[in-house]
Each structure stands twice: as structure tokens, then as C-alpha cells.
Design a protein that fits this description.
Length: 441
Amino acid sequence: MKQVILAAHFPGVNNQTVWSDPASGSQIDFSSFVHLAQTAERGRFDFFFLADGQRLREQRGRIHDLDVVGRPDSITVLSALAAVTDHLGLVGTINATFNEPYDLARRLATLDHLSGGRAGWNVVTSSDAFTGENFRRGGYLDYSERYERAQEFVRTARELWDSWAAEDLVADPVAGTFAAANAGEFAHQGTYFDISGRFNVPRTPQGHPLTIQAGDSDGGREFAAANADAIFSRHGTLEDGQAFYRDIKARVAAHGRSPDSLKILPGVTFALGDTDAEAQENADHIRRQQVSPQTAILLLEQVWNRDLSSYDPEGPLPEIDPLISDDSIIKGRTRLTRDPLQTAAQWRALAEEKRLGIRDLIIEVSGRQSFIGSPARVAEQINTFVQSDASDGFILVPHLTPTGLDEFVDKVVPLLQERGVLRTEYEATTLRGHLGLEGGA
């Protein structure tokens, strides 16, 4: 049977986070990061995943309610976690649009050394001029160019990592040499980067830190198939997951790679209970916490592109149509839909069919794929997806910081281990090794 890959997403600032829950702790204190990472390692997870963002999102000129806690730098947090974990992979989101290859390759190589080969990079892009205002270049990058720059960025970073061979670090006191003569030499000339010199971090335990990509567009899929070791996905049914799995694996093969060299890892939530019925009650309660009246209006505004603050969250959808404009009401975040008029029509039909007000509709349409049930039921669901080639594993997104993963590790992990699809002890020493990828040890 296939082994289930599991990762823990630090909730941070997203639509799944319930920061207002009395049980929620700090999302910036180091103790919160430590708790979730050590819980994941206790559950023999493959890696810890930390999202990031380059600017606080705004809506109607105000900081979005989900960004109230801010966004600490990923690599800084992961470097600190390397000292309090022993086996867990450490993956951070880092933007390929607003960074430079030499600097980022150096920081990731350093993390890989500090952690003994556990570093990973979730490559994201941005064509958002609002976010670009935080940087010297501003919003210069056209939407069509973002993946082109990212492709060259990843390629350049790998050239830098490969500029040191494993045997280049000599450190011979008799000969008076510490490195091979050409160690670290590089020269890259391309469309976006023209750099040369010597890379100053020797080859890392993994050679290349793990590369992950998130994106469901055709461009995103092609980028992942050509470059990534893993890809996030978001497909709510077994059949949709299998279709995505087949598509991505075929694209990987078309790029001359082994289909197994790219792991498919949907992000999922979960709700547990002693019985399936109790779990469903818990899930319903969580969803109503996640979609507060305020959040329901904010999410609706992102489709309508209008100020809807005067509308009743429990009332009907607006009769007016979405405002079509290049200027979005939400700044620093991708719009929920590329076709607001079509989405509005679909939502109206659904609201009429099920007699839903605004908040109940948003709860219905905005949920991430979720596993709901008793621990035995959830373990069965997870294993079914993996063995049926709908995924290679999952990135779990708990709704509470930092204790949201505790119950899963205590109750579901042992059942997966009993099935023989999740390790009981770590065997590999690197993140690539955990995932069975080339360069792993």
C-alpha cells in the first residue's frame, strides 16, 4: 500500500482560522509554532508548513479581519524551529516575484544545513501592484510574466545550489586548501536575471531543498509539472481528485520526469467526534465560527466588488449585479472568481433552491475539502483517497492555533499506523527522504 504523506499547516491568517475562539492562542508567539511543530513530529508527519504574505490585505481601505495578527517571516520562524525538532520537514512560502535568486537560495541553503536536510520552499508568485508597492520595483510585473520569472527563478536557484559538488568542501590543513578551486562558481544570463560570482554556501544535505507549488490554473499546473516536488490541490470529491491526479501525473511524464517525482497534496480540514453524528455537529459549529457575520459580508464583497456593509448577513443576496472593474475592493489577495457575473448567478440559484441567506450561502460555497467523522471514519477516508490515487497525502489545516492538531495526532494517527500506511518511526534523515524523492537520505 502507498504510504500516506502528512503535513501540518500552521493556521495563521486564512479562512479556516478561528482566531476569536476562546481556545485560540497567539499566532506570533514562538511557543505556538513550537507546539504545532512538535505535535506534528509526535505524529510522525512529513513536514510543517508555514504560509506567508508580503503585505497585509485590505478591504474597503481597512486591514482584513483575518490579517489582524500579522505575518512573521517564514524562514526566520523555520530556522528557530530547526532547533526544537529533529525529523520534521520545515517548509515556508516565499514569493518568487519579490525576491532575488542569490539571496533566497542562500537563505534556503542555510536552513537546509541548520536543519540537517529538512528545508522546503513553497514557490508562489504575484502580479499584484498593491503588494508590489512594498518593493522597489512596485507592480511592474505583468500577470502573464509571473510564471516565466518564477520558472527562471527556480532554475537559477538550482544552478546556485549545484555550483558546489559534495566533494568540493576539502578542508585540508596540510595542503592549505579548504575547497575545490572552482567551488561555488556560477554565471547565469537570462531574461530576468543576469548574475555571476561564487555561491558562498556549500552543498546542502538535500542538494536541492524541497520545492512545492500551489496553483490550479493551467499555468500553475505546467509550472509544477516542470519544476516542483509537490503540488497543493483543492478538490472536494474523490472523482475530482482522481481527475486532477491523472492530469498532473501525465504532465510530469510529458516533461520527462517520473510521475512519482511529484507528490500531490490537497489542503484539507477535519472535524472529529466520538460518532459520525457528533463530528458533523462539531463541523457545523466550526464552520459558523469560521464564517462570522462580518466575514460572510467581506467574502461576498470580494465577488460583488462593492461595499455591502449595510446588508444583513442573514438576509438575501443583493439584487444588484457585481461591479465589473479592474480596481478590486480587496487588495493583496486574488479575487474569489474570474467571472463575477456567472458566480453571482450560480449563487443566486443555489440560494433560491436551498433558501439560504448570505451567511449560510457563504458557508455552503467557501468550505475547503474536509474529513468529518469518528477517528476511524476519518482514517478510512484519508487512506481511501491515497490508495485510490486521488492524492499522495494531505496538508492538514486545523482551525485553532496552536492546539488544533492535538486530537488528530492522538486519535487518527494511531489508526493509520495500525493500517501500515503511516510510519511509526522516522527512517529517513531528510525531508526528501521522508517523501521518497531523489536526493533523499
